[in-house]
């Protein structure tokens, strides 16, 4: 594979659902672990949103509700979504997730 001689910054959004049975301490600990993982893999968090506990459309792992979060991230590492997928997959506290790349128009901030 040819080596790139330029840096490309990509914008991503990562939406994940935590178990509703977690205490606030456990939620904050899990969020800090996710932040550290993103930073270790070369990402920068632009914005975090807590959407709160919402009813799921269908039961997931015997849960009817989940606590939703969204992170808006920039990174020049194209492997960041794969690293996040792996982290989310091995975490018992995350019951569903979705990572996707966002197209940003020139001249606008993410």
From TrEMBL:
It comes from the Bacteria. GO terms for biological process: translation. Keywords: Ribonucleoprotein, Ribosomal protein, RNA-binding, rRNA-binding. One of its GO terms (cellular component) is ribonucleoprotein complex. NCBIfam families: S6 (TIGR00166). HAMAP family: Ribosomal_bS6. Belongs to the bacterial ribosomal protein bS6 family. This is Small ribosomal subunit protein bS6.
